[in-house]
Amino acid sequence: MFKRTKVTDGTATGQGPDAENWDGKEVGFRKKSKVPGVMITQYIEKLPEGKSHPDFTRKPIALTIQEGKFAFFKAIVTGDPKPTVVWSRNNGDVSDPARYQSKYDPNSNEHTFEMPHVKPDQADTYKCFAKNEYGQAMVTVVLNVIEVGFKMTKAPQQQAEVANCNFKKVLKRRSKVVPKAEEPEKKEGEIDPKFWELLMSADKKDYERICAEFGVTDFRWMLKKLNEMKREREEEQAEFVKNLSDLKPIHINADGTASFELEFDLLDPSSSIYLYKDGEMIPYTKELGDKMKHCLRKVGRKYIFSMRDLMPEDAGFYQLDVEDVNMFSTDFKMVDFLVKIQEVKAMEREDAVFECVISAPLSKLMWFGKNMPLEQGDKYDIEVSEDKLIHRLVVKDCMVVDKGIYAACAGIKSCNAWLVVEADKGAPKGKKTARKTTRAGGSGTDLQKVAQEQQQILDKEREERKEKIKAAREAAAEAAAAEEPEKTADSGAGKDKGAAVKVERIDKTSVAATTTVAGDSGSGHSAGKASGGAKQDGSHADAGGGHSAGKASGGARKDGSIADAGGGHSAGKASGGAKQDGSHADAGGGHSAGKASGGAKQDGSPADAGGGHSAGKASGGAKQDGSHADAGGGHSAGKASGGAKQDGSHADAGGGHSAGKASGGAKQDGSHADAGGGHSAGKASGGAKQDGSHADAGGGHSAGKASGGAKQDGSHADAGGGHSAGKASGGAKQDGSHADAGGHSAGKASGGAKQDGSHADAGGHSAGKASGGAKQDGSLADAGGGHSAEEASGGARQDEPLADAGGEPGITSGLSDIHAIRGQPAELTVKMNTDCDGAWFKDGEPLKSGGGISITKDANIHKLTIHSCRDTDSGLLRFVSGDLSTEGRITVGDVPEFDEDDLHKFSKPVIVRVGQNAAFKMPFQPQESLTVSWFKDGTELKDGGGVKIVREPNHSRLLLRDCLRSDSGEIKIQLKNPFGAVEATSQLIVLDRPGPPEGPVETVETTSSVIEIKWNPPKDDGGSAVTNYIIERQERGHSLWTKLGDVSAEKTSFRDRNVTHGKKYSYRIYAENPQGLSDSLETADSIMAGIMILSGPPGKPKVVSTSKTCINLTWTPPEDDKGVPIIGYQVEKRKKDTNQWLALNAINEPIEDVNYAVKDVTEGAEYEFRVSAINESGAGDASPPSAMACAKNPNMRPCFKDPEDFLVVRAGNSVRVKISYEAEPPPHITWLKDDEPIAPWINVINTEGMSQLVIPSSKRSDSAIYTIKAKNSVGEAFFDVEVRVTDEPKCPGPVELEQTVYGKVAVSWVPSPDQELDDRLYYVVSQHDSNTRMWKTVADRLFANTYTAHNILPGIEYHFRVYAKNDMGLSDPSQSPTWGANSNRVPISSNGVSSMEISFERPPSILVPLKVHTPPKGYQLYMTCAVRGCPTPNVSWYLNNTCINSDKNYYITNSCGVCSMYILRVRENDGGEYRVVAVNSLGKAECSTKLTVRD
Questions:
Q1: Closest C-alpha to 469, from 702, 228, 192
Q2: Cα separations (Å) of 835 from 112, 803, 864, 885?
Q3: Is 0.85 surpassed by the pTM of this model?
Q4: 846-881 residue pLDDT tens
């Protein structure tokens, strides 16, 4: 049951600020906090500087917790002065320190409100107040408590609600699906309620699958009923939510969690949401997702339920309710792998197939490759069979990079396997082979057969459900059609019409059945049924009460005699035998699964069989004379039987409680022989008599033996029932008196009726009552019970006095302090040395039997028994007998316990790497006198060194620092108090790199082309499985180790195919796991590839000649060729200061001559060489190395390599002249400036093969010709370099224009001031006219100061610019005056000829209009048109009526009336209408076009 918080208005007692501290100033200004949900009241309008009102930086979090757990709220407040924090609740008081505790931690500034052992009545809305003199902050938090079990105190209240028709409160927060523990016994064929709940939340496409799963075949009936139920459910849902949609059933995510989703809007945001699993409410959290297993979070309108740490027991039926209305139901199933995926070995470019079979249909598995999820696509095919049991993953076109581990996941179950891709060695090098059409892999088993067998199992289960449903419907139809009442069975099985059974179900808990018995039916100890048989003569038929689910009934008779059946204690059946003469047939009730039956007789005498208490069999002996044969009920697997008689006498056998055997002795005179029931493995037997006397044996409760002694005088012999290993025996009699055996266990024993009126008693089987039967002669037979291993004797008799032990009264065994477990029985015993009375007291108050306490006295032993200990039973107990007393204290408590979620979390192994710290934490409920201990592999851990143990009131932590591999093992925490101890275990796994593989390395095979080696796996895998082995090889005589490759962990051998015949190799093997590589296992000796006969070494090579590109060698053949012809030679070289010999030719390409020109040399490097002779076995031993030879030319005169003869440098910069040269021996270098020695501030840097002249900061005076001179013993060489140091020239002087001839203008200017300093300076002239409006260069490299411009037309304005230019660049220009129509003209005479005045002026006009353009995006575009007019019109470009003349994205020109517009890269926004407008003083002209940009 779930206890909801009641949200009410108003303030309860103790809520809010104290009343006595309240004054009017608390009424202030409302302020807004940065933390949502916090209400702040500020008492004054303006706060003093540095002061602040209270506020919450961390508010308490709403909590849903199980009853009995430790609940707490935490808050952090701020404010100056420091606020006072007070906690309260809406509907109750928080002043009880036993239930509410407020704490403050000054270090963390946390205020904690704790509720140990939280109760359902503590569910409420709590408030936290923080107050100082400037204001108050308040926040509310809700506590919900989940009740555990059924509370008897709630039953009357709920019954009253039912009586008042308040069904809503009673049924509130009840799932439609009843928990398994409360499910009523289903009628055969009844449809599971989960069927309808699933249908109402499922898509229509899933209806067929759900119906097939539950065995429903009538779809029309199902749809009709489903629509009715949906309408009712939608009406209920409309009261609380709206827009319910997007229902997604539960599924498992890639991160290992499971979740389901749905969307809806709550009409009332305060409505409560509940989660159920199989009808039982489960706690969840909204904010502390890492603390609880289940989480329900809200994202917008979407509600997502998720659970982590999935286990098989998480499978079940999940429901989400809002208040008492179900919103969504889904079924979470677990499947298993019947056939797992297997390792696949595929060739390159071949398809690989992984296959598996699961136990239940599943539409999709999650496939992973190298820890990455895989989806259907070009690389992978995911296939599912029609029955959805066979799943395949096809890796298409396998390459070497595809190798790795692949996994299939179905819920929390998964399997994985390796994909090994082998390279195709037959493929040509450098070319890609064609894709293969074959598939590699598969499971290796007949998957279709396995799937068919599983499908048959599923179909069979489905058909069984269908048959049950069909049979139930047919039975219901027949029952409705039947009109006749049920007939009484001819066998006469009596119905107990007086028995009335009333069962009430209140809040998921079944109340015990109340049985009212009419007649003499025994009371039922469990749910069994007891009834008396029906008779025709009015006599009585009794049936003993069944202790378990067994059924006891009396047989029907024709003569009215009695048929009794003893109550069955277990599932056994007891029945009376059928008779034809009206005689008596009794069958005792079977206490267990045994069967008790009466024997058949021919003379009407009774045959009784006692009830079997266990699986044993009790039967009465056969008689021929009408005598009585009884068999007592066997309590265990033992056998009880009555002896055979010939005279009509009585032979009884008592019921055996254990594996013992009880039998009656054989008689010849009609006397009676009884054997009492044995409670344990002991044997009970009656003594043999010849005179008709009676011999009884009491029932032994333990392994002891009980037997009746023989008497000659008719005296009384009793045998008490032994509760322990003691021995009890009863005497035999001759006068028909009674011998009783008492039983002290929980059963009830009563004496049977005899023919002579005497009473025969049977010992009780339990702690119940044993009494003697009544006799005709007035004698009484009692049964005394022995409670311990001592002998109990001295029963009450008529012929002997009571046997007592005399002496002074005294206490031989007194009381001591004990601890009792709550709900368990406790017993206190006081033993006196004499039989005397005494009294019991608790905390000074006298005690009496009753109310769960029993006070008994057995001779000199006094006992106080508490049947079920409670907290109120704790106290000081005292026993008083006369002047003697003893006392002891009893304390009632509980054994420590762990929360199931915490225990599950703790049980998960902690996995760390070597050197890391391992931490364990175990929460528990705070208790007094609780001792916490930590153990590792059974050894207790102590705080100190690398072990840190922290003990808090509600948890304990263990920290192991710097873990080693040897620290792996079992970690156990033990909680111990005086009432007991509880333990929880976990595992610590310390991961490390594995140990080295186990040696020695074995040589499996060695040939001229292959060496195969073998090794054993490492003893220690480092805590994680070895993934592969890495093999390295070293050739003898070499120091370099080469990696050959790796093999999978399952393979511990390697074949080296790249070996040379006769060579010796050493190998070393590493094991690798995810933590790294192990140390290596190395071969003890080198391994030779095959057996070879190699030639001896040739003579030492000699260097014939050297150059910078070639070294010529010669050598002599070997003196000993070992009798094998020499094919050729192999030459190797080694560079100075290295250890590696490099072969200059391959063995299969031998050098046939005894000389060789080595061309693979580096100039200036030194080498030595050695030669090996090659025969058919390979290369033999190498010759001694030659002398070092340097790759260099012989002596030569100096020469310069590609020098530059001219260099220009800006004044102020550094000058660097680099000259490379060749010479042998190295020459002497000299630099000159204009054939004179250089100045001392000029630096010269000489290195091998190069000389450099450096002037740090140059000046114009450093301009000169520099000469380098190189001289050695062979000769000398010279080279000149001209260095010019200059700067940008100054601009020329003023420019003058003069026209002497028509059409020509002379341009002159004053020289630049730098002309005299720089002989490389020249001039550049640019011209501009009003027609083109562009500057163009008309003269370049002018060394004079004049220039004549041609084609100067009248009516056009001209401008000129003159630049000075040298090696550093151009100077600023000198501008000329404007040359136009009215300036500087030379008058031309007309020679008397008159001419008419002609005007060329005209308005603008468009000669060639714009064209339509549709360029692609990103392409360039030219757009042109032709315009004319006089005066020259001004042309403007427009895009969508916006002028773009000044837009830098468009390059616009106008040359002689041809107007052009250029776009470098067309954009989307360049599209639109373009318009050209030409305007002069006489008019305007325009044209337009459209530009469309294509994608």
A1: 192
A2: 60, 11, 17, 15
A3: no
A4: 888 888 899 998 888 999 999 899 888 889 989 998
